[in-house]
Write a structure and sequence with these properties.
The protein is about 10% helix and about 30% strand. The chain has about 180 residues and is mainly beta. The protein binds a DNA duplex (12 and 12 nucleotides) through strand 3, strand 4 and helix 2.
DNA sequence: TAAGTGATCTCT
DNA sequence: GAGATCACTTAA
């Protein structure tokens, strides 16, 4: 079943954990590619120094301030698109970075494989968009979730870079 | 381990 | 307008 926007309209850390084991589905032409989400990172609120939203709303990060269930896509290092899903209330800047799906590890590889770019920025996660989330009934237990510090955010200082806002599945099961 | 790559942010 | 920075990948 397709996941609705209100699924994302909750505490970001909670949603991040619940997103593990769900499916990211992409329609390319007539084909649908469904990949299980195995790794995510949370960026929660303007106080989070590692978040793009920590310095207020800008032309780039405005989708983070929008309603939950929309995508935030941006380019980094001149060549890699990052895919995020916005969470929380409108005007509360928060999003979850999808770092790994299926057998792909790394946010840059993911977007390259699924042909995701800025066209999805600010779009709603639904079938019409061509990129959405599905719940296929896989249950993830708390002990299967590993918590770890986020990647590439050392610039945010010791407090925010050490927070365990990264969640990944320990045993990747093949459905 | 280092280089590639370019939009965006933060100063002038 | 210029310069620094960056939620990464790949090939050695």
């Amino acid at each position: 079943m397709v996941i609705k926007p209100n699924f994302f309209n909750k505490n970001t850390l909670l949603v991040a954990k619940k997103l593990l084991g769900k499916y990211l589905v992409r329609r390319l032409g007539k084909k649908e590619i469904a990949l299980m989400i195995t790794e995510v990172e949370a960026y929660d609120g303007h106080k989070d120094k590692a978040s793009h939203a920590s310095r207020g709303k800008t032309k780039r990060n405005y989708p983070m301030f929008g309603p939950a269930g929309h995508f935030y896509v941006y380019l980094t290092y001149g060549m890699h698109w990052m895919l995020n899903i916005v969470t929380g209330e409108k005007d509360y800047p928060a999003a979850i970075l999808i770092r790994g799906v299926g057998n792909l590890n790394g946010p840059g590889k993911l977007t390259k494989f699924l042909k995701i770019d800025k066209r999805f920025n600010g779009k709603k996660a639904e079938k019409k968009t061509g990129l959405w989330f599905e719940d296929r009934g896989i249950k993830i237990k708390e002990r299967d979730i590993k918590k770890a510090p986020r990647i590439g955010v050392l610039y945010a200082g010791p407090i925010w870079s050490k927070k365990h806002y990264r969640f990944l599945l320990k045993n990747i099961k093949n459905p």
